[in-house]
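for the recovery benchmark. tokens below, seq after
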């Protein structure tokens, strides 16, 4: 699967300009560190939380990062179906 890294970097820059994240470092090809707390790997859509050691997979980069650092904004940009 080909990854549009220009889109990834534009999205991260937009989140930084909106003050939703503080810092972004590109550590290697397809490896970014956000706020020195979260590593993302866009090629496989995986993430790793450095403070907790938790790992997982995300579906929408912007929604995931926004919700990870600002839980009150989680799922703001997309609808969520709730089943009872």
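predicted aa per position
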């Amino acid at each position: 699967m080909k990854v549009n890294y220009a889109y990834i970097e534009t999205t991260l820059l937009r989140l930084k300009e909106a003050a939703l994240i503080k810092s972004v470092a590109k550590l290697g090809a397809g490896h970014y560190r956000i706020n020195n707390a979260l590593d993302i790997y866009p090629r496989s859509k995986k993430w790793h939380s450095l403070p907790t050691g938790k790992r997982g997979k995300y579906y929408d980069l912007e929604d995931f990062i926004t919700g990870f650092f600002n839980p009150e904004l989680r799922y703001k940009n997309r609808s969520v179906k709730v089943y009872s």
